[in-house]
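Usage

Read records sequentially. Each one opens with the input sequence:
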Amino acid sequence: MKLIDKGVVIENGKPVIKQPQDLKAAADKTIAARILHAHDDHEDPSLLHIRFDSLTSHDITYVGIIQTARASGMKSFPMPYVLTNCHNTLCAVGGTINEDDHQFALSAAHKYGGIYVPPGMAVIHSYNREMMTACGRMILGSDSHTRYGALGTMGIGEGGGELARQLVNCRYELKMPEVVLVYVHGKVKPGIGPHDAALAICGAVYANGFVKNRVMEFAGPGITSLSQEFRNGIDVMTTETTCLSSIWETDDKTADYFARHGRPDAYAPLRIEEGAYYQRCIDIDLSELQSMIALPMHPSYALPIKELKRDPYKYLQEAQDRANKQLNGGVKMDLVSHIDEQGRIHVDQGIIAGCSGGTYENIYEATEILAGHDTGCGEFRLSVYPDSMPVYKGLVENGAVDKIITAGGIFREAFCGPCFGAGETPANGEFSIRHTTRNFPNREGSKPTEGQIASVGLMDARSIAATAVHQGILSAADEEVSSAPVIQPYVFDGSIYTKRVYNGWQKADPAYKLRFGPNIKDWPEQPSLKDSLLVKVVSHLDDPVTTTDELIPSGETSSFRSNPERLAQFTLSRRDPDYVDQAKQIRQIRDDVSAPEIQMVLSAFAQNGIHTDPAQLSIGSAIYARKPGDGSAREQAASCQRVLGGAANFAREYATKRYRSNCINWGMIPFLTEEGEQLPKGSWVLITNVREALLQDLPYKAWVYQDGKVQPLHLTTGDLSEDEREILADGCLINYYRSLHEKRLNPKTC
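and closes with the structure output:
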């Protein structure tokens, strides 16, 4: 794999390093640019204002989104909105509250005209691939892995605030992103699967930010050698590179996919054009790909399994040392103990699941490796989750399910749980290998603050099956498989969805009553921003990257996603357990300028000639994180901070656009600090002109009080649109829309 950090132009179908004479015209020839321009309102040349063709959410996020949109004046869904139930389906914490959320969604589909996919029917992205994609479309989802580029659909994963904006007929704002060409050639060897390619790409581009907030455009002769599902499997993992979106060339295999799913009209050929310009290029020779593993605790910690087996002590020691620097609570990860006297690595669990692993071809090929073997009756166990009920039926009809359970595996239902720690949680100290999307800290469900830790390595389904054949001895499929199997196709039975999925699109019934459960609560009122802002830094995270899973853990917290106050109690619980109490202390006094701690701090500033009007002072808490926001699109990573009184975040940079957007939509100013200004826990920051500077794009007048000293502080907020500035000034997206309705105005982007 080669990274070309220079612009390339397509000449005779191949990338050539050069600059075109008309840069904009050449850049507009990319597939990505053509789709983006087709969805832009064209009113503002400096920004794209995108209206999506459809929206999608799962049961961790849709209640909050609908509640936000309701509070903002929504009367019906203005485009198809798919509500799937694949996340908190089985983590039954808190009595009936999971199913209450599902019934709320069904009632909302009736009332507002949505599409409701019942629990167990399909994971979110598989349903959208099967039923909602089409070449040239755009889909916005409240899940970071909203990626359908291999089917010609640009998918973008964002926080729920951005979906709420679409639901009230407002647009998604962004500058035209750069496009990175992923030029694919060669042909994969037997035993190599899509996760091997995806992990190799993540390992090459994540840490250096090569594709951050850019669009990855896949093209080249190697694509034709890949099945459509193979392409889908690579594509869904582009999220882990921190790119904005992805798009692929389409061909006869794409057309066949749509035809087999009963939607032949969804196909259109998408091709790279002569003269198209790309700001960067990734050159991939598929024949060089090897069976890969991503060691804990990130998909980018990837290396060939052969290399790991060659020196297991070196790589596992490095991985556990790296992990133990991040872990909190005194618990230590121990990977080296999984190496036996013969130098073999023992794993305890294998899982093939979700939108990346649970596809028909992945499971079918894994089954062919497993057939006739025995996974053993020791500690190792294998579980397989299909990604949709039609796929489940196909695997039953083709005998794959029989082969899996005959070998000793467990076959389950369509569920995303193993991907985010709500199912198949390993025992303390265990090592799990998974064909799922992430292996972030505690993604398998462990709780280091309670002395429990497990670890996850990401691998392709084929290598997981090879490991299962050896009853838990880590193995690489490219060393086990000499020829690729002939994959027996399955017949997609769309009647499974017709009989169970409620499709209310364009059939909204305003009189239909929403069904609420006792755990479904409205968002608490949030204050607007006053002239000045005083915040206390109540958590300091100096890790290279802080994930959204660390900001608000996944897993059992899923049951409380519809209750903002209860969910907020989990904020930073596995990273900084003191955060919630510290934030609450500030929230209790944010309306009381006479509180002793506030008076002490204001007096310290006043002694240094820095004064502010107490009646025009906003008070809140903040966190400092070097680079927060990698990972999930869940807006709760930001909203929970806001519910607890958060007013700002300080960072050297934000890992993803979506987390920064979440902070903005929830009224927390995303400040940027300079190198060396780390704002320790307990320090206070005062910005005396915050509202004026925010609305008029002026320099911030800021100071920090720490260790008895007051020092000036240089803060910026980066690029903010006019709408984003007004949202922050109003205190959150809900307040912003409420004020517009009171004034009987519409946002400029509507």
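Summary fields computed downstream for this record:
- The chain has a mean pLDDT of 93.
- The first helix runs from residue 23 to 27.
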